[in-house]
Description:
By secondary structure, the protein is mainly beta. It has a single domain (about 5-205), classed as Beta Barrel (Acetoacetate decarboxylase-like), CATH 2.40.400. The chain contains 2 helices and 16 strands. The protein has helices at about 80-90, 105-110; strands spanning about 5-15, 35-45, 50, 55-60, 70-75, 110-115, 120, 125, 130-135, 140-145, 150, 155, 160, 170-180, 185-200, 205. Strands 1, 2, 3, 4, 5, 6, 7, 8, 9, 10, 13, 14, 15 and 16 form a 14-stranded mixed sheet that branches. Strand 2 and strand 3 (about 50) form a beta hairpin. It starts with a strand and ends with a strand.
Amino acid sequence: MTEWEIKGRKFGNCNCNYGCRCQFNVPPTHGHCHGLAVFDIERGHHGTTRLDGLRSCGIFWPRPIHEGKGEGVHIVDRRATPAQRAALLRILRGEDTEPGATVFQVFSSTCDSFHDPIIADIDFELDVDGRRARAKITGVVDMRGELILNPITGAEHRVRIVQPDGFEFAEAEIGRAWTKTEGPISFELTDTYGQFARIHLCQSGMVRA
C-alpha cells in the first residue's frame, strides 16, 4: 500500500435537507442520494508524488448510499501531471486505503461502476468559516453555497457537525447549497444541505493532532 496524506478543504452538497440525515446514520431525506464534493489540497502527497495546490471533484449515486449499486465520476484538475492524476485517482477511488478509513474509500465501496474520469479546469472559491463557496467546472458542475439565515429575523444561523471518530472531517460548518451537474451523472439541487470543512486524511483515516 502506497502511503499518502492530504490536507485541505472541501465543499459538499447533497439532496438531503439541512443537516443531512446520512450524517446521523439515518436514511436520506428523500430515500435516495444525489451528492458531490469539491476538494482543494493545500498540502499533500501520494508516495513521492506531490499533490500541493491541486483540486478535484466527485459526483455520486442515484440510490441510497448504504444500499450500494451506485455510480460515480471523478473530475481531476487539468493542471495535474499524468503522475499526479494517477495518484489523485487512486486516492479518490479508495485505493491504497484501509477499508472504511476515509470518505473516499467508503463512497467508492458503494459504487458498482465509475465513469471515465474527466480532466478539466476547476474554478473554486471557499470560505469555510463564512459558509460560502462557489465551484465551476465548465460543462460539468455549477455549484454555490451560502450560510443559513433565520427565516423570521434574517440573522445568520451557525451550526456545526462534529465527528471525533469520523472518516471525512473532524468538524464541518453547515449551510445551504445549489448545484447543477451535466454529463454522465446529471441532477439539479436547490437550497439543500451544504457542507464546508477542512480535511486532513491519510491511508489510515483522519489525521488527528
